[in-house]
Structure formats: structure tokens, C-alpha cells
């Protein structure tokens, strides 16, 4: 009996331990699922805002065409302005005219390139950039001119046959992330005749090392022109560089951006592997005609991005989400390119579409991994994922999610405050003077005004206060954030409008400000704003803007420092107010 009692007690103990383990596992799975849901919401916010910004960029491009038709009377004394707005391909000076103007001083201690370039120069450049050295503008110019010379001899599409190689590596967006490029080369090896690469556009912008990434890719291309294939992305574009940061890098090197613009226009549109796999930036549509794309003059294309056509709505369509948030549309059709490896925006999938994105930590530290894929003849593609920094991977999951979530909500609140007046008007149309709305009505107002397709109900806990009945106090949407007014007397509507369009205005005035002095005359500012507001249908009285600009002219010299003007409109968050106090 004693032995039986002992055995039963031991079995009960094991059963209790097992139950405890199962309870802990169940709790942790739920906890992790909730964290991953929060992470997904944060990434959705980032992606929605990014796509909204890209739509703004396209709208701005259409505005330049509008401005060209209406700005003639202002730029009669400055005809070059028209050419800059058109981003036309004027003939630039000869190579020696530029290169000879930029000599290399004896005191220069950075990397020195020897033309014609060899693999030694690739090693030299990589080693120098690892040590945070800067390539002299003289060598940058040499590389750009040499790259353009080689690109001009190439067709619109690279044609690659995998039978010649064991594998070929395809990389997606790098966006100036030098650490990611280093990591790819470390894991996968440097480009060579036996290790070919395809880089599928968006080499620059957003990251801090766009010039370094561009130089490594161009030098590798010049050394191995038959083994390193460069496709043009939508960020290989002067207007995109103005918005997303690469132009500022170019100005630091004192280069003429026109030279780089010409190199952009000669980059191939895409790469075709074994006449079966199309690698192209931006995706394709049902109406994409490769024969047409083969024959166009690519150097006259303003942008490589061709928006896909809408599919036949009478047929069944399945939507899948890709890494960057754009839907992949599946139809029963077949394409000549069986596996288009493409990047963001709409994509129509016939047999298989693969989205490759190689910039890790794209939105925020820890937000995503980068990836590249390897293709071998007759085999399925192999995928390799990575993250360039250990700093975030060593943190617990909840800390990583908190960092990403805080950054996403911060960006979203800045979008909200820029439309405060419009949102209040929309809320009041739904309200019966109670100051509250149902969660559904509040979400409807947010989506209709901001134009962001987001899970507003799930995000409401971060944005507004709710009562015990679940109703939203809609004015709490603005409780912990405000736009600091540069002039106290200025009306809130004007401030919100200028803040909302400040990125577009910055691009516009950077184009006009050819000498990059940062000074814009009051008359030029007001005249441009009138055209801008007319095209964008901005309901602001021009006289109010005139008065604001007059007030911003602090020294009354007839000009305003536009950079200071932009900085005057900034958002103050609640925690920043508390910190200053």
C-alpha cells in the first residue's frame, strides 16, 4: 500500500507539472500573438503612410506639368527654371571639363581608384567605406562618366542565361543601407564572373550611405559588366531624391546632380533570365508589353515606374500581402515571364511573383529583415534573410515591438494633427453636440479624411479616450500633440495646410533655388503658392498666406530663408512638452 501511494503521488505531481507547463505555454502563445498583432498594426501604419507619400510624389510630378503651363510669366527672366522643372536631358559638359575642375589634393587620404578598374578597386573601396572614409568627388565623377558610357551601349533589358553560372543572386531595394550591402557580400561573396548579381533598383534614398552604396554597385558593374546587372528603380530619379534625402548627400560632395540624372536614365529597365524570369522594379500588369518596352527610348523616361493596369473585375481575384504592404493579385492567366521577381506596388501574379526587399530595419530599428534570393537553373529559388544590426535582435520582443509601435504612432499622430481642422469638421457632422462619437463613426471619419486604410478600431486605444460605453471623445485625438505656430497670430488652418504640404513645398523650392542659397523672394513664394494651392484645390485665402510670409521676413529684405521657414512648422508631442518643462 505504501508503494502504491508513492507511485500515485509521483504521477499526480507529474500531471500537475505538465498542466502548469501547458498553462504557461498557452499564456505565452497568447502573449506573443498579441505582440505580433501590435507589430503588424505598426507596420501597417508605416506602409500606409509610405504609400500615401508616394501618391503625393506622383501628384507633385503632375503639378510640375501644370506649373510649366502657368509659370511662364514668372520665369521669363529665368528660363533655366523651366528646364529644371522638366528635368530635361540637356547635354552636359564633356567629361574632362568636370573632372579637371575637381582635383585630388595631396592631403587626401581616402581610397584612390585606378582606371580601368579591376577587382582590386572593389576591395579598396569596400575597405575604405568600412573605415568610414569618403571617396573624393574626382573619383565619383570618373565612375559616373564611365558608368554612363557603358550603360549607353546596353539594351533596355539585360538578358541572362543561368546555364553559364551555378547560381545568380537577386537583391531588392537597398535604400542607402551600406550595412546591408556589406552583410550580403559577407554571406554571399563579392561579385565576380562566377558569382553574378542582379540589383533590382532603389539603390539610394532614405538610408545614410546612398553615395557609398551607389559607388560600390557602379564600380562592381564596371569591373564585371556581364556579371553585375543593375535595374532602374523609381528612386533612381531626381524628384524622388529631392524628397527622400539623396540630394542632400549629393550637395555635400559638391557634385552636379545633372550628371547623376543622366546615369539614372541609362540604367536598364529590367533583366530577363532564361527568357522565363522577369526581374523588374515596380511590377507588371496584364497589359505590359515587353516588345514595346524593348523598343522605347529609356533615356527619355522620367521614371521607370509604370503603374499597373486594373485587372478584369469579372474574374475571381485573390489578394495576398507582400513584405512592403502592396497586394499581389492572382489571376488564372499565364505570363511569358513565369516568375517575375518584382518590388512594391500592385502586381498581377500568374504563376508566381516574388517580392525581394533587401533593406533591413527599413521603417525603424528591428522593424523588418532584409532578404536576397538565389536562382539556379532547373531548381526552385532559395531565400536568405538577415538583419544588419545585433542591437535590436538582442532586445526582448516586447521592447522591439514598443520601439516600432511608438515610432509608428508618432508618425500617424503627425498626419492627424496636419488635418485637425478637417477632422473636427467631419466629427461635428456626425455628432449631436455631445463631443462623442461611436467607435465606428470615429473610424469612418478618420479614414475618409486622412485617406489611410488602417485598422482604426484597433488603433483607437493609442489615439483617443473612450468612455465605459465605448464612445470616443473625438477631441482627444489631438490632446497630446500640436503644431507649433511660427507666428502666434496666424490662423490654425493656414499652419496645418503649410505643415501638411511642407515636403512638397520643400521639393518645389529646392528646384527653383538653383544656387541652393536657401533664400526665396516673398513674391516668388507667394506666386508659387497660388499656383500650388490652385492645382491642389487648397481652400486657403491667398491674402492670409501673403501676410504670413511678410511676417516671416524678419529682416525685411524681401526674401525669406526657406529652410528656416520649414523648420518653423514643427510638431510638438506630449512627452516633448513634459521634457521641456
From TrEMBL:
GO BP, sorted A to Z: detection of stimulus involved in sensory perception
Domain (EF-hand): residue spans on this chain: 500-535, 540-575
Record's catalysed reaction(s): O-phospho-L-threonyl-[protein] + H2O = L-threonyl-[protein] + phosphate; O-phospho-L-seryl-[protein] + H2O = L-seryl-[protein] + phosphate
Region (Disordered): 313-339
EC number, UniProt record: 3.1.3.16
UniProt family annotation: Belongs to the PPP phosphatase family.
An annotated Gene Ontology molecular function: manganese ion binding
Superkingdom of this protein's organism: Eukaryota
Necessary cofactors: Mg(2+); Mn(2+)
Entry protein name: Serine/threonine-protein phosphatase
